[in-house]
Structures are given as structure tokens and as C-alpha cells.
Amino acid sequence: DIQMTQSPSSMSASLGDRVTITCQASQDIGNNLIWFQQKPGKSPRPMIYYATNLANGVPSRFSGSRSGSDYSLTISSLESEDMADYHCLQYKQYPPTFGAGTKLELK
Amino acid sequence: QVQLKESGPGLVQPSQTLSLTCTVSGFSLTSYNVHWVRQPPGKGLEWMGRMRYNGDTSYNSALKSRLSISRDTSKNQVFLKMNSLQTDDTGTYYCTRDRLGITTFDYWGQGVMVTVSS
């Protein structure tokens, strides 16, 4: 199975900060990666498709990028509504595998 | 509009079998794959398995010996059955969908919380 190593596991940041979360794939997954946001008691919400494409309705402060086997989700200027858990998912190869998640909290 | 909704018992005794239903609307089970994903409390997401549009199934190898996914297209329902439940099977169970080349994991159900306890 492909391992997705997500970091950090948790972080605290201030409003207006630039925040970056990263997933590293153990094998080539191309751009077959999704970033999800998940708020307490809610289902995962897709934020970024195909590593870099913003999902419908997602604010433009969110972006995705790739450098080799490293995939990043960046929030350019943190807002209070962005406090949530974030998960990456690779679907290049079965089984689909998730990163362990990142808890983003307000400092 | 597209909807998925999980249903099932909230409490299951250890060693018993979990049965969940995912009822979908707004799309056809013969065009989309439906996946089951679970999440233990406070932990990450785990892909469990899928029902393909053509009726084939795929399972997470870690769960394969205990897991079965089936469907009733006439009722727009996908079923999950998992036996020999243990306390570490406690968590929220979600269904979600994808369609090759079209969309992936775009819509999710609200999830159903399952507690394994005597």
C-alpha cells in the first residue's frame, strides 16, 4: 500500500498567518491527491482535487501544490473558519490511503 | 441533488456483526462507485472498501476477512456488513462516491457513529 506521511500532526497559528500542511507519498501517485477539510462532527469536505485544483466554492486563500512526492496545502491568510482537521488522500493506487491528519488550531 | 445517507445501529456488542446501509439519491449506482470510509474517535480516516458501478467489490486487505459490501440498485442502497466486531471498530462510518475520470469522493454522507461495547 502507498503510505501518505502527513505533517505536522497539529499546529497552532494566528489569524492572518500563512499555513502549510504537507503530505509525502511513498510511491509515485502523480497528481492523484485530494485535500479534505473536516470540522468537528462533520463529514470531510473536498478542498483541493488533483493536487492543485480548487474545489467548487472553496475560498481562493486555499491552494495546493506538488514538488516531487511532496504535496502541500497552503492557506495564504488564515481565517477563524479555517480551524479544522485536514486530511490528504491518494487515489492513484488501490487501496486509497489517507494521511494521518493535521489539527489546525488558533494560537 | 446528490445525497448519501448512512443508517444502522449505534451500538453493537463485541463479536457481533455490524450492518450499515448507505441510501443514495441524485445519481445512479450503475454509474458511480460507492465507498465506505471509517474514522475512530479523534483519529484519521480509513478506506474500507467499495462497490463498483458494475457490481464488483474491492476491500481493504486489513478488513477483507471480516467485510462484505453489497447493493440493491432498485432501492438505491449499498450495504456494509462486518463481522467479529471489536472495541477498536468503534467510530464514525461514512459512505462516499466517485466516478472514474469524472469526480472523486466529492459527496459524503453525514456519517453514522457506531460504538462497540457490551
How would you describe the overall organization of this protein?
The complex is a heterodimer of chains A (107) and B (118). Chain A is an all-beta fold. Chain A has no helices and eleven strands. In chain A, strands 2, 4, 5, 6, 9, 10 and 11 form a seven-stranded mixed β-sheet that branches. A four-stranded antiparallel β-sheet of chain A has the order 1-3-8-7, with no helix packed on it. Chain A is globular, with a radius of gyration of 13 Å. Chain B is mainly beta and 118 residues long. The A-B interface holds A 1, 34, 36, 42-46, 49, 55, 87, 89, 91, 94-101 and B 35, 43-47, 58, 60-61, 94, 98, 104-106, 108-111.
Summarize the helices and strands and which ones pair or pack.
The complex is a heterodimer of chains A (107) and B (118).
Chain A: E1 4-7, E2 10-13, E3 19-25, E4 33-38, E5 45-49, E6 53-54, E7 62-67, E8 70-75, E9 84-90, E10 97-98, E11 102-106
Parallel strand pairs in A: 2-11
Antiparallel strand pairs in A: 1-3, 3-8, 4-5, 4-9, 5-6, 7-8, 9-10, 9-11
Chain B: E1 3-7, E2 11-12, E3 18-25, E4 33-39, E5 46-51, E6 57-59, E7 67-72, E8 77-82, E9 91-99, E10 103-108, E11 112-116
Parallel strand pairs in B: 2-11
Antiparallel strand pairs in B: 1-3, 3-8, 4-5, 4-9, 5-6, 7-8, 9-10, 9-11
